[in-house]
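ugh ok so i messed up the first submission bc i forgot one of the chains. this is the corrected input, ALL of the components this time, i swear. 527 residues overall. if the numbers dont match what u have on ur side tell me asap before i send this to the collaborators (the ones from the other lab, u know who)
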Amino acid sequence: MTLQSIVQILASGLLMGLIYALIAVGLSLIFGLMDVVNFAHGEFLMLAMYASFGLVALTALDPIVLMPVIAAVLFTVGALAYVGVVRLAMRARANLGMVQIFATFGLAIVIRGVSQLLFTPDYRNVPNVWLGGRTIPVGGIYLPVPQLAGGLVSILAFLGLWLLITRTDFGKALEATREDAGAVALVGIDKNRVFTIGWGLGAALVGIAGAILSIFYYIHPDVGLPFALIAYVTVALGGFGSVFGALAAGLLVGLVEAMTATILPPSLKSIGIYGLYLLVVFVRPRGLFGSL
Amino acid sequence: MLLEVRDVTTAYQGLVAISNISLDVAEGEIVAVAGANGAGKSTLLKTIAGSERARSGTVRFDGSQIEGEPGHRITAAGIAYVPENRRLFPRLAVRDNLRLGSYLFRGKADREEPLERVFGLFPRLKERLPQRAETLSGGEQQMLAIARALMTRPRLLMLDEPSQGIAPKLVDEIFDAVVSIRQSGTTVLIVEQRLSECLAISDRGYVLQTGRIVIQGSAQEILDHTDVRKAYLGV
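and heres the new structure output, hopefully the right one now
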């Protein structure tokens, strides 16, 4: 194997890893905020991809341009999922953990079922995108433009999230609610508002990822499942609730997947990821950056 | 009256914790609520603060009815509550805990002014600003909890057993701080087990026994009351 092809594999692995990180971070954010695993996370991604598909058909603009709109649509989806489902599930008097799991799992099934009904199970793709199918040569290797743009967007999204958490009042409210949701009322913070915005934010982040993914990936009602699975692995790897653990773990997952794909047949490319996951679960169950 | 509690009954899972409590706090007073463990003192404060819901009765603050309102609205209305276990944000810095106290205010002056006030009361907090709240001693944590409450610029400060789990030297410091807090215009409602120390700084007091008010009056009257020890020990 030449040096060039090794660099090529590493580069495409890292780019895909940035997208995996962006998919996973919303999941981690929501978990960190309220200890709820959103089992409908993959369905949020799927909705984002259909939102992209529909908006492109409607406006004839590019998914890259429509990204803020798609993020806003998903913010609404996330906020509604909290207000309409999760908030009610959290009132359960017994077996709270189980009730939450089944509530978001049920939400996932409903979203998938309704999508099958409305969008049909046909595979679709967003036509005529600016960035679709292009590559650019960088120092002797070729990088796919959609993934490159996706990687850049992911870095910007993480930067934005970091600024939000560290520099704003809402970021402090988010951190305080993570620490002790029952105590924020003492300083006048409405925890339900923080939870609603937190769910919106988590969904908006996966919305951005969905917009990117719609450029180079086919769209169908089950498209979220494999990505959600990778997102759960990423979040467990990075440490549940750790936002920047999700970034590091996403990159690692992308790299491992790219390397596995060169060694093993492409259909077995996910084995590396799950092998890594098993290793972490055995050796360091709280994840790389987890504090559980 | 700044605070008027009328015939309030609160129950946990069917068990009545306080029943038909009526209590007043006038602007500028320090009012003490004493009683043995389990007498319902904490439940009373929780009910006023909105973290427990009254089954019946009314709570008025500055003339408006507040019972049934969520806790964050009650904080915004001007009641700051320091619960028994303080409920600081343990892994956040002292600075951030304080900063969160002024979350409701947007103006710079509204945030800086109470900060100067709490540094005046508890100078040692100023040295601890970058430290995580969980690294403070029990006494310092209590100071931080009171300071965070003052950052909300309350008209009424409610303290639940501020002396609990604190070195004796710091207890005096905290009681001294309560006196200065009142001097600077904030009314105080304080729940304590340390009867004499607490009444020494209070204007009036109430003694609770198994969820009911059994004695009330000026601080001196309560100290002189022969039944106090009995009520206090819960026999």
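quick check: Chain B has a mean pLDDT of 92. that seems consistent at least. The first helix of chain B runs from residue 41 to 49.
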